[in-house]
Amino acid sequence: MEIDWAKTVRSLRLRLRLKQGAMAELIGVSQTYVSRLETGLVLPPPAVAEAVLRLAEDPRTRSLFDDLRATVHHSPFPCLLLQTGPGGRSVEAASADMARDFLAGRRQIDDAPALDRLISDLDAMAGQGLHDGNILGASAVWIDINRSDRFWQVRYTPIRDETGASFMHVTLAGLADSPAARAAANDATPRVERFTGN
User: Fold this and answer.
1) What pTM did the predictor assign?
2) Phi, psi (degrees; rounded to nearest 5) at 105
3) Is residue 62 a contact partner of residue 137, using CB atoms and an 8 Å limit?
4) Looking at residues 80-94, what average pLDDT do you find?
5) Mean pLDDT of 178-194
6) Angle CA(36)–CA(38)–CA(39) in degrees, nearest 5?
7) Residue 67 and residue 72: Cα distance in Å, rounded?
8) Crossing angle between the packed helical segments 5-15 and 46-57, to the nearest 10 degrees
9) Average of per-residue pLDDT across 34-38
10) Cβ burial, residue 105 (10 Å; 0-12/13-18/19+)
11) What whole-number distance in Å separates Cα of residue 139 and Cα of residue 152?
């Protein structure tokens, strides 16, 4: 995966609550160079890239979002972390089951026919205020793509990383065939929970 160095350096610096000069000392460059990295004017040479990645991966400085990404990637259950911002929907992390059974090695969900229902659910949530921050979460039931007598209970949780980028955490849990599962799978849109605070 290609690294967005401007985003990586800026989010790491903000997460650590450092000024550019302090960040520069930690990775062995000048404050001006950190500024140029954050604006995308330069790419880091290998030694600087290694210093940034080492700092980002250190458990003492790793963000909660990085922990979530790792949890999704190593999960024994089907789950997915999608970036859902204006640049489109791309896979940030996927469990092995999700990658094998639903993505078939693809990085874009729009290219994965097994995720057509996910796409329609995301579109429905977008129309109900997902990108305005009005949705707390949502749930839906999908029919299994390989077995019409098996269903998936799907939970959607919108989140943001430390830079404010939008993501969707998607988890699936298997359901047995039942009249309730069949009825829920026929719902055209997910059940959305909204923030109720003022």
Assistant:
1) 0.73
2) 80, 5
3) no
4) 85
5) 88
6) 65
7) 9
8) 40
9) 96
10) exposed
11) 10
